[in-house]
Amino acid sequence: MILRILALLALAYALGFAAYSVALGKPAPADSRETQAIVVLTGGSGRIEQAVERLEQGKASRLLIAGTDPSVREVDLAERLGGKEKLLECCITLGSESVDTRSNAEEAKAWLEAEGFDEVRLVTSDWHMRRAAFEFRRALGEDTYIVYDAVDTDPGFRTLFVEYNKYVLRRLGLLLGI
After folding, report:
1. Is the pLDDT score of 38 beyond 90?
2. Phi and psi dihedrals of 147, rounded to 5?
3. Over 90: is that where the pLDDT of 42 sits?
4. Is residue 84 scored above 80 in pLDDT?
5. 127 and 91 in one domain?
6. Same domain for 94 and 123?
7. Residues 67 and 40 reside in one and the same domain
8. pLDDT given at position 74
9. Residue 92 · residue 53 · CB < 8 Å
């Protein structure tokens, strides 16, 4: 009986991983709703660039870069973005309070509340979007409108496997009250 239960759990895990791997986050449609703000999570290539592009397209009026290393300065970001100093001055906030996805959501929540925003576009990598969306929905609640805008990547097996396990463990931890 125990062997059957373990086999069933292994099968559920494998099927879950397969479903996770083929149903990665997608970029928001071009005609997606505009929001008051954008929050981009650091840690993956193309994320900041896509968020700034959405800001320039008028998809939102403000941008929080959550999880910025405290040593990063606005001048460093201006150099990376190639002459977009005006956006930095008016519209981009560097957030360095968070160190992981859960604290990214908490940092974003505090910033959104301080700014009086209840609509946000979340930008992160396609392979990271499911866990980020889960954490943001938990932190922000149902009253905040969220547009999910994933950055297309080509993740390898290891990236997907690690991220799937983080997602599953986080869900299990909450289920068990940890």
Report:
1. yes
2. -105, 125
3. yes
4. no
5. yes
6. yes
7. yes
8. 81
9. no
Same domain for 166 and 84, yes or no, is no
Cα–Cα nearest to 84, from 124, 56, 42, 60: 56
Q: Domain total for the chain?
A: 2
Do 95 and 176 reside in the same domain of the chain? no
> Quick one: 59 and 117 in the same domain?
yes
CB neighbour list of residue 8: distance below 8 Å, 6 or more residues apart: none
Give the mean model confidence (pLDDT) for residues 55-78.
Answer: 90
Position 81 scores a pLDDT of 79
> Do 31 and 14 sit in the same domain of this protein?
no
Give the domain extent around 163. Answer: 1-24+157-178
Residue 135 CA to residue 158 CA, distance in Å, equals 22
Distance (Å, rounded) from C-alpha 127 to C-alpha 23? 9
In one-letter notation, the amino acid at residue 34 is E
pLDDT of 140 above 80: yes
Question: 3-state DSSP call for residue 20?
Answer: helix
What are the φ/ψ torsions at residue 138 (nearest 5 degrees)?
-65, -45
Region of 66 (left: φ > 0; alpha: ψ -120 to 50; beta: rest) is beta
